[in-house]
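Notes continue from the previous slide.

Worked example: a multi-chain complex. Inputs as given:
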Amino acid sequence: MVELANFAIHTLNGIQYGFILFLIASGLTIILGILDVLNLAHGELYAVGAYVAFSVFGYVSGAFANPEGFVGLATFLVLSLLAAVVAAAIMVPLGLLLEAVFLRPLYGRDEVYQLVLTFGLLLILKDMNKLIWGPLPVRAGDIYSGINRIPAAEFVGLTFPTFKLVIIAVGAVVVVGLFYFFNRTKLGRIIRATAIDREMATAIGVSTDRVFTLVFAMGAFFAGFAGAMALPQSNASLEMGANPLVLSFVIIVIGGLGSLRGAFVGAMIVGVLSRWAVWQYPPAEIAAPFAIMALILLVKPNGLFGTWGETA
Amino acid sequence: MSDDDHQSLKAWGRRSYVPATTTRDGDRYVRVSRGMVLSPRRIAGWLALLALFVAVPDIASLSSSIQQRVLHQGVLFGLAAVGLNVLLRHTKLVSFGHAAFFGTGAYTAAVLASQFDVTSMLLLLAAATLVGTLMAGVIGFLSLRHTGLYFSLLTLAFGQLLYAIAQGQSYLGGSDGLPVRPGEANRATLFGVELSADVYSVVVYYLTVLVVVLALFVMWRVVNSPFGNALDAIGQDRTRAQFVGIPVRRYVLAAFVISGIYGGVAGGMYGLVQQHVRPEATLYFLRSGEILFMAILGGFGTLVGPLVGGVVLVFLQDVGRDFTNYFDALTGIVLLLLVFGFPRGIVGSLQSGSRLRAAVSTFSDDPAIVGEWATEAWTSLWAAVGRARRNLRMLVLGVR
Amino acid sequence: MLGMVGGTAVAAALAGCSTLLGEDDQSSGGEADVPDEPIQAGLQTYTEGAASVLGLQAQYGAEIAIQRINDAGGIAGREMELDVAHEADAAVENYTQFVDEGKEVTFGPISSGGHAALAPEVESQGVVNVGTDGTVTTLYEDTVPDPTYSFRFQNYDVMEVVTAAREAVARIGADNIDSIAGINPNYAFGQDEWKFFKLAIQQLVGDVDVVYEGFPELLADDMSTHITEVNDNEPDVTFTSVWGGDVTTLMNQAAANDMFDNTQLVGSILYSAVDELDQDVVEQAQAFSGSRNWYWDFPNGSRWSPNADLFEQAQSEYDVVPTAHFMSGYGAVTAWATATAKTVDILGEWPSQEQIARSLEDHGFHTPAGYHVMGSDHQGKSNAYSGSLEWDDDLGRAVLEDVNVFTPQEVAPPIGTDAEEWINSW
């Protein structure tokens, strides 16, 4: 029985990690699928989100020093989540600006220039974080310990931080919301139509211009949201963008370039399997995601779900 | 000069090895070797570049902010970028994992030097090149099943896999890396001769000069051969190339392996120069990105561009650190300028017909044009910001 | 002005007890033939990024030491000027640039890998480098077995690990340690520390079960896999050598997973994260932490004013609680400055690099941390400190209580003996 509980906790750790990865990779893959741009600065958007969240969380933990009782804890949780959304929303204008000023002139040009440009933006955003928040890492430990005071997993007899459960729950809501958006809403279908055939979409009166902007802003929002959700249990540092970027690449290659469903499955595979790998064979921690990717590509050269558009 | 003239010049260039001159349209051309016909101006340019290259140790001694070691590193990363350029320029494949070959070369030298005590500089270099080439064969075979972004991401992933291995294996020194200091003297030897520290750095530098000149010449031959033309055809249209009978996969793999050779030899030289190899400095994916950006910065439409780009980028990062805390942003701004101001790169922009050249000549005709440019840039920036604002409103209020 | 002030004033100022000196009765030395211009020194350290938690402390320490030297009139009348470079992963380039710029001495680096790359280059360039950190055990065992110009001030890995092992045994008792686990950073430093901890604890308590060994990446944002395994195996002692931001990540997540109910955490350098640790976590953890060769409050400032003064200065000028890394920078500068001042006194002229290097060997000197010896093996050795990590309401920070002090003889191999051989010989 102990073994099963242990296995469950490792798996839950992996699922939680998978959701954070999905939040990052989803933006990257949508942008790739529709704008045909591989955004190397995406990891930095995640980092900026974490830094912004640090500032926004400061108000929450400033107003609520030591949340107690059911009402206090519930309010604290809601306020914290709201703060994360606010931080992510602040990323939207930044995303719009980046798209309108820098990326737009590049559509239709050789794809290497997009790589150079987004890499340049990566470097500039990184130094922007340094300028605003300083060279030292920052953290929001109050949010983490505050939310963890809510006894959740203990109901089923597991030792598992509530904050992780919150990430899983919020991540699940985002996944459902995203699939609903792309499958059931008009705007979502318009975006998918643009992904499938840009010219045809224009012909039936879709403003691809606006779709591009919207999609990039969405990517920035979710990357920022991922940063905000990841911040409390660790910290925000200048280097934090690099790893998630590379892992997101792995995920979208596994899932199929531009496929949202692929990104979800890929994120869960990488999240859970890499946590299992750390558990069973610790030295494999860094290599695990790449080994998984190589394996999957040997079996399915185009990734698990191919390209996006036809199905969400 | 018409195309016909050019063709006949080329043919003339191929006829024999004897240097000779000829005159077309009043311009004189010199045949340097078989197939290599250059105008005197270009020859002068090449010689000036070579002289500059040879004089680096003297230039570096002039100012303490210019370091021979740094310029040397730039040359070596640039050499790897020259290799990468075979793929980028001709087959239109964007490799994002060239640090793999650079790092393989560097680590081969390091492992042989520190675990097997191989002291011969040339042996270390040869082994580095060989293993780098083999690695390129393996990675090329696995990743060339794809093109476009998939290819880029696959090369990146293989590069990171090697990085993870180097980082995780204590045999390879983990993140501390391995020294390249074999033998009693703690330095590799040349033809069995032990060198003092000062002599060593100069000898290694001129060895690099030799390797680079040779490598550029070979690259010139490769891209101007029928094989190079076939690669161009593949880059333009794979399917058409297949139909005209070019064995696309074999040729692309060959190009990939050639580019890997350059990475391997550059990495091996890097090991000899730095005398210590670490995963972060040689295998990390950001190094791969830098090698790619070096090629573009220097001008990927040209032969020496990537080399120039390598020196400039490495130099910029090093000097940037001396005078600002925000050296990353400095590099970032240079990359933005590259994309929007001189997309053909440094060397490409110096060639005739580039936008930069046109701009310079307009400027010398009428310096007041600067004001116009500034207004233009300002207007387009404002237009973009305005668009972002409108789009934000649209996002908040919905599409109407 | 030629050097009127002898070595003693500098040494006293750096020991933190210049006030004990009379006006100028202690300044020995007379007219020494020294150059007029200030001494140019270079320090490379992490000024940004995660490792700057350590790097900036080293920089602050070095700056204060230099300030004190200059306030005391400089070394033989020569003031010192410090140029700080960001270490990045360019330890060798930074050093050679310092040399090109005509620096007379260099300090740093922080990174173990950087130090391993740098030390041989120091030997061939011949400008003295006093390492602040970069404490990998093999540096003077394998990398540069016979150094001339390369020195290291801070206690090295094997010392802090043996300290941690002895600390664990002292606090918990050899009989109560049957199983251990390790969570160490996944790079050479962490592997080095874990290897020596296993060796040392097995020598001290006999057979122990190693129930888990985890190696989280540097800057990992999630250590819960390792924490879960520790929870599952419930080892008597969990050893960790994580530092800086990783300490906070590990301890916060361990607290959230109730790991401290299941094991006793012993860290070699947990205290390096002092400015980031939260009260509830510290109180829950009841961990033991080493603090290398200095803990700012031992002996307590009321009994040992040099500690009080240095702490005061670190707080007022940099708003930090100074850690062992602060002393890394302070002591490296002190080692060089006192040795150089001493040599000027003896020679009556400004010494060459080789002369300074020679006088640094077996050189003893004081800092507020006490007495240090730069061994003939070029490895500095100092007392090692360790204590139990507790929360202090007045300070609003974590402190070490109940501090244990281990002499170098207890935690370091004798000169000429390999660390591994030494531990195996216990």
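Summary box: Chain C has two domains: 2-155+298-381, 158-292+384-424. Chain C touches chain A through 38 residues (CB under 8 Å).
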